[in-house]
Amino acid sequence: MKKLFYGILIAVNCIFLIPATTFSEKKEVKVMVKNIHYLGHDTFKITGEKVIFTDPFKIKKKDSADIILITHEHYDHCSPEDVKKIQGPNTVIVTTGDCAKKISGNIKIVRPGDKINVSGIEIEAVPAYNTNKQFHTKDKGWVGYIFTANGQRIYIAGDTDYIPEMKTFKNIDIALLPVSGTYVMTAEEAVQAAITINPRIAIPMHYGSIVGDINDAKRFREGLKGKIEVVILNEE
User: In what residue span(s) does the Metallo-beta-lactamase domain sit (predicted)?
Assistant: First the structure.
């Protein structure tokens, strides 16, 4: 009788403990991504101590950026008209040399491996290139970025495939990864990239505009189920 009582007690405790843990984890994820706003394609607005935009494209309304990170010179990433919509007199633009020729302002040119500090934000340019297609070749010197904002190390991959250098990206809190295939990783390849990088949270991007759709993002999430937390921003 006593064994039965303790067995029931343990079972009841387990039932009540599981939802508490799940709630805590969901709350932490919500806090981590609350300042990250997905505007489509590879465009994110990250708010906090500084307002950071990545690859502004099809910006719908005027805004003000402290820092703009541009990964390469393709029109859907380096868009002068969209840059102007968010550029102020003190905006710093971090980008590659070929993109810098298309825009004006306070520009910091980077290549893979460069590390700079912009207004207190540590930014590292990392390689981004294709391994099985020719849209973004390694010799172009195009980049992704690892930067620290709101106390979190954020990696935005740019237009890339799953590349060996990802094994060297350490202590990433949030990884923003392309999932649409054609020009970048497929959802399945992005799953492998995420497992290699091992961020606390992965957020899919590069879909719904030029190529890909929400189903790519969902396949990415399904592939990482039970391994890495995936947040699809703006999911209806």
Answer: 40-206
Q: Which two tokens stand for residue 192?
A: 């492998």
Report the pLDDT value the prediction gives residue 21, as an integer from 0 to 100.
Answer: 39
**Higher-confidence position of 28 and 181:** 181
- In one letter, which amino acid is 187? A
Q: What is the 3-state secondary structure (H, E, C) of 49-117?
A: CCCEEECCCCCCCCCCCCEEECCCCCCCCCCHHHHHHHCCCCCEEEECHHHHCCCCCEEEECCCCCEEE
- In this prediction the pTM is 0.88
Look at residue 209 and give its three-state secondary structure: coil
Domains of the chain: 40-230 (3.60.15.10)
Residue type, 74: H
**H helix or E strand, kind and range, residue 230:** strand 229-230
From the list 36, 61, 27, the residue with the least C-alpha distance to 204 is 36
SS3 letters for 5-59? Answer: HHHHHHHHHHHHHHHHHHHHHHHHHHHHHCCEEEEECCEEEECCCCCEEECCCCC
φ, ψ at 186 (rounded to 5°): -75, 170
**CB neighbours of 20 closer than 8 A, spacing ≥ 6?**
none
The encoded tokens of residue 160 equal: 């890339």
